Amino acid sequence: MLRLSKKADYALMAMKHLAQKRDVSSTSAREIAEQYDIPIELMAKCCSGSCGCACWRPRRGRAAATLLGRAATSISVAEVIEAIDGPFTVTACSTDKHDCEQFSKCSVRDPLWQIRERIAAALGTVTLAEIAAENLSTPVAVSRAAVLHNART
Q1: Per-position b or e across 17-46, b if 16+ CB within 10 A of its CB
Q2: C-alpha pair distances (Å), 8 with each of 4, 50, 85
Q3: pLDDT tens across 86-132, in order?
Q4: What is the largest CA-CA distance in the chain?
Q5: What is the rounded distance in angstroms from the CA atom of residue 34 to the CA atom of residue 77?
Q6: Backbone angles phi, psi at 122, to 5 degrees
Q7: Are 122 and 116 spatial neighbours (Cβ–Cβ below 8 Å)?
Q8: How confident is the model at residue 55 (pLDDT cuts 50, 70, 90)?
Q9: Cα(56)–Cα(46) distance, rounded to whole angstroms?
Q10: Is the whole model's pTM more than 0.70, yes or no?
Q11: pLDDT in the model for residue 87
Q12: What is the model's pLDDT at position 40?
């Protein structure tokens, strides 16, 4: 089963929160954690920028806060997930390590890698602005169209 980590879920929730607060330029990790019942320590890690994601711009000091690093329309869901969880994989051999004993004989490796690329491409077409929008019917339809287009190529 394909599944995001809790940390990636929380990071996306926080970023959606920031994207929806257009009238406020920043908010604290504590505020986000309290609003969504997320452990403050985990939310602080997500918002600290330590994950290496250019999507966050933490502000330190007395007025410690978290801001989006750039416009929500230029931040993809794939970028956030990969910054938090690392490269997206569907099989053990999806990484460069090739630890699997069946690597040289595997008959489904290449098709599964292609599926991984299609999923990553689909996630790459969905922006933070789209998930922050109130009506998700249009963005989901666009994402499905991208998946169907990628499936044909």
Answers
A1: bbbbeeeeebbbbebbbeeeebeeeebbbb
A2: 6, 14, 7
A3: 888 877 776 666 667 777 788 887 888 888 899 999 999 999 899 98
A4: 58
A5: 23
A6: -65, -45
A7: no
A8: low
A9: 9
A10: yes
A11: 82
A12: 87
Q: Distance (Å, rounded) from C-alpha 92 to C-alpha 130? A: 31
Tell me the per-residue pLDDT of 1-42, one tens digit each, with 9 for 90 and over.
578 888 888 888 888 888 887 655 567 788 888 989 999 888
55 is written with which tokens?
A: 């999507």
In this structure, are residues 101 and 151 in contact, taking their beta carbons and an 8 Å threshold?
A: no
DSSP 8-state symbol, 51:
T
Alpha helix segments (H runs only) across the chain = 6-20, 29-36, 40-47, 77-85, 109-125, 128-132, 137-152
Q: Give whole-number Cα distances, 17 to 37, 111, 125, in Å.
A: 13, 37, 20
